[in-house]
């Protein structure tokens, strides 16, 4: 039944594909603002290469500790790479994928090739395997205090942490969490900027002209998620929700373009980042250097 629903969703979204090459070219000219110059954003191919390199390091570590481990396949890096931190939609993507909600709801995550073998282990051996991979509950940890958030605790003796150190360097975890926190602050402040608020009001007026009574850009996503929850595994209800998703997302993308939302977000983000004190971005150069080194280790051409 699960496979049937997935095929239904895939066929539904494929049927909605009507983007023209000209439309895609126009979408490429639209700004795609990302905080901190996109330092925390990876292309699909880069993300896949880094995942595979990290999994190789995890396997090396696990084998070194006497455990079997098969690398986990890469997930949906295409969708993650295309997702805007500001919820911006390209018309071509909206035509094909809507917001990605219906397909994501039905998509099966990559199968863990270790699951069956680990589940067959005795309880003591299973705990030892999981402790080696993720770190023991009472093992050594690094505490990372974030400027705008809680303290993050990261295992330092797990094979996952060993793999990241090997690939990215010793300072990666601290720099990544710190800059991720800063990125979230930039996104929030940008969305709260008067330029963006004015563009969102134009967007809402545009949506109302087509009969969509939304005041905020997250409203259509909330409504669709509610419909998906109500649909459960009912194939007919899921098809109906998928069609509504495509219709809404396409209009959303058109209204974003008419309101100049991407352009205003880009202007607002520049103002927000310009106002940041230098101390907030002090880790950026070191992070970028570690990122570039990791891509080279993963075999990505410069």
Short description:
This protein is mainly alpha-helical. The protein is 64% helix and 3% strand.
Would you mind describing this structure in some detail?
Helix 3 crosses helix 9, helix 5 (91-97) runs antiparallel to helix 13 and helix 12 packs antiparallel against helix 13. The relative contact order is 0.16. The protein has helices at 2-15, 21-29, 44-64, 77-82, 91-97, 101-106, 115-119, 123-134, 159-168, 172-191, 194-209, 219-231, 235-259, 261-274, 284-297; strands at residues 141-145, 151-155. 64% of the residues lie in helices and 3% in strands. It is mostly helical and 302 residues long. The longest helix has 25 residues, at 235-259. The protein is globular. Strands 1-2 form a two-stranded antiparallel ribbon. It contains 15 helices and two strands.
Rounded to the nearest angstrom, the radius of gyration is 22 Å
Number of helices: 15
Helix share of residues? Answer: 55-70%
Main sheet attributes: strand count, strand direction, barrel closure = 2 strands, antiparallel
């Amino acid at each position: 039944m699960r496979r049937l629903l997935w095929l239904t969703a895939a066929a539904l979204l494929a049927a909605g594909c009507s983007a023209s090459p000209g439309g895609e070219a126009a979408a490429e000219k639209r700004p795609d603002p990302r905080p901190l110059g996109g330092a925390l954003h990876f292309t699909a191919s880069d993300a896949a290469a880094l995942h595979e390199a990290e999994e190789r390091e995890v396997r090396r570590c696990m084998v070194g500790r006497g455990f079997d481990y098969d690398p986990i396949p890469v997930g949906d890096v295409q969708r993650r790479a295309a997702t805007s931190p500001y919820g911006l939609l390209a018309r071509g993507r909206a035509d094909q994928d809507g917001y990605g909600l219906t397909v994501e709801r039905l998509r099966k995550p990559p199968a863990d090739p270790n699951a069956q073998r680990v589940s067959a282990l005795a309880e003591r051996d299973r705990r030892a395997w999981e402790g080696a991979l993720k770190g023991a509950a009472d093992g050594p940890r690094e505490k990372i205090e974030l400027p705008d958030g809680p303290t993050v605790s990261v295992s330092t003796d797990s094979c996952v942490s060993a793999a990241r150190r090997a690939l990215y360097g010793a300072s990666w975890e601290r720099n990544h969490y710190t800059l991720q926190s800063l990125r979230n602050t930039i996104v929030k402040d940008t969305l709260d900027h008067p330029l963006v608020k004015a563009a969102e009001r134009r967007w809402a007026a545009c949506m109302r002209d087509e009969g969509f009574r939304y005041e905020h850009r997250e409203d259509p996503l909330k409504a669709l998620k509610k419909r998906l929850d109500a649909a459960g595994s009912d194939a007919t209800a899921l098809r109906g929700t998928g069609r509504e998703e495509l219709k809404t997302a396409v209009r959303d993308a058109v209204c974003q373009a008419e309101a100049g939302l991407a352009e205003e977000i880009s202007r607002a983000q520049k103002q927000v980042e310009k106002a940041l004190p230098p101390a907030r971005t002090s880790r950026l150069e070191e992070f970028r250097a570690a990122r570039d080194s990791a891509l080279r280790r993963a075999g990505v051409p410069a």
